[in-house]
Protein backbone atom coordinates (compact mmCIF):
# COMPACT_ATOMS: atom_id res chain seq x y z
CA UNK A 1 0.00 0.00 0.00
CA UNK A 2 1.36 3.39 -0.94
CA UNK A 3 2.07 5.64 2.00
CA UNK A 4 0.69 9.17 1.78
CA UNK A 5 3.11 11.61 3.29
CA UNK A 6 1.60 14.39 5.44
CA UNK A 7 1.28 17.70 3.66
CA UNK A 8 3.70 20.42 4.63
CA UNK A 9 2.91 24.09 4.84
CA UNK A 10 -0.85 23.77 4.49
CA UNK A 11 -2.66 26.00 6.95
CA UNK A 12 -5.45 24.28 8.83
CA UNK A 13 -6.93 27.58 9.90
CA UNK A 14 -9.24 29.44 7.58
CA UNK A 15 -9.98 33.14 7.45
CA UNK A 16 -13.61 32.68 8.43
CA UNK A 17 -12.52 30.85 11.62
CA UNK A 18 -10.38 33.84 12.57
CA UNK A 19 -13.25 36.20 11.81
CA UNK A 20 -15.57 34.06 13.95
CA UNK A 21 -13.08 34.34 16.84
CA UNK A 22 -13.00 38.12 16.49
CA UNK A 23 -16.78 38.32 16.45
CA UNK A 24 -17.04 36.10 19.53
CA UNK A 25 -14.81 38.58 21.34
CA UNK A 26 -17.04 41.48 20.30
CA UNK A 27 -20.10 39.64 21.60
CA UNK A 28 -18.47 38.51 24.84
CA UNK A 29 -17.04 41.98 25.49
CA UNK A 30 -20.46 43.51 24.96
CA UNK A 31 -19.54 45.59 21.92
CA UNK A 32 -22.17 43.62 20.01
CA UNK A 33 -25.10 43.63 22.41
CA UNK A 34 -28.06 41.20 22.61
CA UNK A 35 -30.52 41.68 19.74
CA UNK A 36 -28.16 44.11 17.95
CA UNK A 37 -28.08 43.75 14.17
CA UNK A 38 -24.80 42.63 12.60
CA UNK A 39 -23.61 45.45 10.34
CA UNK A 40 -21.78 43.60 7.58
CA UNK A 41 -20.42 46.71 5.88
CA UNK A 42 -18.95 48.01 9.12
CA UNK A 43 -17.36 44.68 10.03
CA UNK A 44 -15.85 44.01 6.60
CA UNK A 45 -14.21 47.43 6.74
CA UNK A 46 -13.08 46.92 10.33
CA UNK A 47 -11.54 43.49 9.66
CA UNK A 48 -10.27 44.36 6.18
CA UNK A 49 -12.03 41.41 4.53
CA UNK A 50 -14.68 40.66 1.93
CA UNK A 51 -18.23 39.66 2.76
CA UNK A 52 -17.63 35.97 1.98
CA UNK A 53 -15.53 35.05 5.06
CA UNK A 54 -17.71 37.29 7.20
CA UNK A 55 -20.86 35.46 6.13
CA UNK A 56 -19.17 32.10 6.73
CA UNK A 57 -18.24 33.30 10.22
CA UNK A 58 -21.83 34.39 10.80
CA UNK A 59 -23.04 30.88 9.92
CA UNK A 60 -20.56 29.38 12.40
CA UNK A 61 -21.73 31.67 15.21
CA UNK A 62 -25.35 30.96 14.34
CA UNK A 63 -24.78 27.21 14.82
CA UNK A 64 -23.24 28.03 18.22
CA UNK A 65 -26.30 30.03 19.20
CA UNK A 66 -24.47 33.34 19.44
CA UNK A 67 -26.22 34.83 16.41
CA UNK A 68 -29.72 34.53 14.97
CA UNK A 69 -30.18 34.47 11.19
CA UNK A 70 -32.99 36.73 9.99
CA UNK A 71 -34.69 35.80 6.68
CA UNK A 72 -33.47 38.27 4.04
CA UNK A 73 -32.33 40.64 6.81
CA UNK A 74 -28.88 39.41 7.83
CA UNK A 75 -28.22 38.42 11.41
CA UNK A 76 -28.45 39.74 14.95
CA UNK A 77 -26.90 38.85 18.30
CA UNK A 78 -29.01 36.19 19.98
CA UNK A 79 -31.13 36.96 23.01
CA UNK A 80 -31.70 34.45 25.77
CA UNK A 81 -35.06 33.57 27.28
CA UNK A 82 -35.35 33.43 31.06
CA UNK A 83 -35.92 29.67 30.98
CA UNK A 84 -32.91 29.09 28.74
CA UNK A 85 -30.80 31.34 30.93
CA UNK A 86 -31.70 29.39 34.06
CA UNK A 87 -30.89 26.09 32.34
CA UNK A 88 -27.52 27.41 31.17
CA UNK A 89 -26.57 28.67 34.62
CA UNK A 90 -27.43 25.31 36.18
CA UNK A 91 -25.15 23.54 33.70
CA UNK A 92 -22.36 26.08 34.22
CA UNK A 93 -22.70 25.64 37.99
CA UNK A 94 -22.31 21.89 37.53
CA UNK A 95 -19.29 22.23 35.25
CA UNK A 96 -17.53 24.65 37.61
CA UNK A 97 -18.32 22.48 40.63
CA UNK A 98 -16.78 19.50 38.83
CA UNK A 99 -13.74 21.62 37.97
CA UNK A 100 -13.38 22.52 41.66
CA UNK A 101 -13.47 18.86 42.64
CA UNK A 102 -10.79 17.97 40.09
CA UNK A 103 -8.69 21.07 40.74
CA UNK A 104 -8.39 20.29 44.45
CA UNK A 105 -6.72 17.02 43.48
CA UNK A 106 -4.54 18.34 40.65
CA UNK A 107 -3.62 21.96 41.42
CA UNK A 108 -0.06 22.90 42.36
CA UNK A 109 1.05 25.25 45.11
CA UNK A 110 2.33 27.63 42.43
CA UNK A 111 -1.06 27.74 40.73
CA UNK A 112 -2.78 28.43 44.05
CA UNK A 113 -0.33 31.27 44.69
CA UNK A 114 -1.14 32.76 41.28
CA UNK A 115 -4.88 32.55 41.96
CA UNK A 116 -4.41 34.13 45.38
CA UNK A 117 -2.46 36.98 43.80
CA UNK A 118 -5.31 37.59 41.34
CA UNK A 119 -7.74 37.44 44.25
CA UNK A 120 -5.83 40.16 46.15
CA UNK A 121 -5.85 42.32 43.03
CA UNK A 122 -9.58 41.69 42.64
CA UNK A 123 -10.27 42.73 46.24
CA UNK A 124 -8.24 45.91 45.71
CA UNK A 125 -10.25 46.64 42.56
CA UNK A 126 -13.47 46.09 44.52
CA UNK A 127 -12.33 48.43 47.28
CA UNK A 128 -11.43 51.04 44.67
CA UNK A 129 -14.71 50.47 42.81
CA UNK A 130 -12.70 49.68 39.69
CA UNK A 131 -15.39 47.59 38.00
CA UNK A 132 -13.48 46.86 34.78
CA UNK A 133 -10.49 45.31 36.55
CA UNK A 134 -12.67 43.64 39.16
CA UNK A 135 -14.72 41.79 36.54
CA UNK A 136 -11.63 40.88 34.49
CA UNK A 137 -9.84 39.39 37.50
CA UNK A 138 -13.03 37.65 38.64
CA UNK A 139 -13.28 35.92 35.27
CA UNK A 140 -9.58 35.00 35.28
CA UNK A 141 -9.92 33.35 38.71
CA UNK A 142 -12.82 31.18 37.56
CA UNK A 143 -10.95 30.27 34.37
CA UNK A 144 -7.78 29.45 36.35
CA UNK A 145 -9.68 27.01 38.55
CA UNK A 146 -11.21 25.45 35.45
CA UNK A 147 -7.74 25.15 33.90
CA UNK A 148 -6.38 23.54 37.07
CA UNK A 149 -8.87 20.69 36.62
CA UNK A 150 -6.59 19.38 33.85
CA UNK A 151 -9.68 18.22 31.98
CA UNK A 152 -9.72 19.52 28.41
CA UNK A 153 -13.17 18.13 27.60
CA UNK A 154 -14.65 19.82 30.64
CA UNK A 155 -13.01 23.10 29.73
CA UNK A 156 -14.21 22.83 26.12
CA UNK A 157 -17.81 22.36 27.24
CA UNK A 158 -17.43 25.26 29.66
CA UNK A 159 -15.99 27.66 27.10
CA UNK A 160 -18.65 26.75 24.55
CA UNK A 161 -21.48 27.38 26.98
CA UNK A 162 -20.26 30.45 28.85
CA UNK A 163 -19.62 32.50 25.72
CA UNK A 164 -23.24 33.55 25.42
CA UNK A 165 -23.49 34.97 28.93
CA UNK A 166 -19.88 35.77 29.76
CA UNK A 167 -20.21 39.54 29.60
CA UNK A 168 -23.42 39.68 31.62
CA UNK A 169 -22.11 37.16 34.13
CA UNK A 170 -19.06 39.21 35.02
CA UNK A 171 -20.28 42.75 34.41
CA UNK A 172 -23.96 42.71 35.31
CA UNK A 173 -24.93 45.45 37.75
CA UNK A 174 -24.96 44.34 41.38
CA UNK A 175 -26.12 46.06 44.53
CA UNK A 176 -23.44 46.88 47.08
CA UNK A 177 -24.66 43.98 49.22
CA UNK A 178 -24.52 41.52 46.31
CA UNK A 179 -21.05 42.70 45.38
CA UNK A 180 -19.76 42.37 48.94
CA UNK A 181 -21.26 38.88 49.20
CA UNK A 182 -19.56 37.81 45.96
CA UNK A 183 -16.18 39.00 47.27
CA UNK A 184 -16.76 37.19 50.56
CA UNK A 185 -17.53 33.98 48.67
CA UNK A 186 -14.30 34.37 46.72
CA UNK A 187 -12.44 34.71 50.03
CA UNK A 188 -13.96 31.40 51.12
CA UNK A 189 -13.07 29.79 47.78
CA UNK A 190 -9.40 30.66 48.22
CA UNK A 191 -9.36 29.12 51.70
CA UNK A 192 -11.08 25.95 50.49
CA UNK A 193 -8.77 25.68 47.49
CA UNK A 194 -5.73 26.08 49.72
CA UNK A 195 -7.10 23.31 51.97
CA UNK A 196 -7.83 21.13 48.92
CA UNK A 197 -11.37 20.75 50.25
CA UNK A 198 -12.97 19.47 47.05
CA UNK A 199 -16.43 18.87 48.48
CA UNK A 200 -16.61 22.24 50.22
CA UNK A 201 -15.30 24.17 47.24
CA UNK A 202 -17.62 22.42 44.76
CA UNK A 203 -20.63 23.10 47.00
CA UNK A 204 -19.74 26.77 47.45
CA UNK A 205 -19.13 27.21 43.72
CA UNK A 206 -22.60 25.88 42.88
CA UNK A 207 -24.18 28.38 45.26
CA UNK A 208 -21.95 31.18 43.95
CA UNK A 209 -22.95 30.59 40.33
CA UNK A 210 -26.64 30.09 41.09
CA UNK A 211 -26.76 33.38 42.99
CA UNK A 212 -26.00 35.15 39.71
CA UNK A 213 -29.33 34.17 38.13
CA UNK A 214 -31.40 37.25 39.03
CA UNK A 215 -28.53 39.64 38.29
CA UNK A 216 -27.85 38.18 34.86
CA UNK A 217 -31.55 37.85 34.03
CA UNK A 218 -32.07 41.53 34.75
CA UNK A 219 -29.34 42.50 32.30
CA UNK A 220 -29.39 39.90 29.56
CA UNK A 221 -32.33 37.59 29.82
CA UNK A 222 -35.74 38.28 28.42
CA UNK A 223 -39.04 36.79 29.46
CA UNK A 224 -39.82 33.61 27.62
CA UNK A 225 -40.67 29.93 27.84
Please tell me about this protein's structure:
Residues 13-80 form the HTH gntR-type domain. The chain is mainly alpha-helical and 225 residues long. 68% of the residues lie in helices and 5% in strands. The chain contains eleven helices and four strands, in the order αααβββααααααααβ. The chain has helices at 15-28, 40-47, 51-63, 82-106, 109-127, 131-148, 152-162, 166-171, 176-194, 198-210, 213-219; strands spanning 67-70, 74-77, 80-81, 221-222. The strands form two sheets. A two-stranded antiparallel ribbon has the order 1-2. It has a two-stranded parallel sheet with strand order 3-4. The radius of gyration is 20 Å and the shape is globular. Residues 4-12 have low confidence and may be disordered.
> Distance N terminus to C terminus?
58 Å
- Average pLDDT metric: 87
How many strands, which pairing sense, and closed or not: the largest β-sheet?
2 strands, antiparallel
Summed up, the helix count is 11
Strand residue content: 5-15%
Secondary-structure element order, N to C: HHHEEEHHHHHHHHE
The proportion of residues forming helix, as a percent range, comes to 55-70%
Structural class: mainly alpha
Poorly predicted regions: 4-12
Walk across the major sheet and give the strand order: 1-2
Please provide the count of β strands. Answer: 4
Shape, per Cα inertia axes: globular
Organism: Methylorubrum populi
Keywords: DNA-binding, Transcription, Transcription regulation
Protein name: GntR family transcriptional regulator
GO molecular function, one term: DNA binding
Amino acid sequence: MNRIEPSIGISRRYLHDEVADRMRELINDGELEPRARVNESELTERFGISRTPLREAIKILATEGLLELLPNRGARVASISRNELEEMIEIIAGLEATACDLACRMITDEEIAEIEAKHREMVAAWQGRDEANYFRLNREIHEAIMGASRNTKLRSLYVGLTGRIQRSRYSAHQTEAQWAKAVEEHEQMIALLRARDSEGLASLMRLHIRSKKPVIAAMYGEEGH
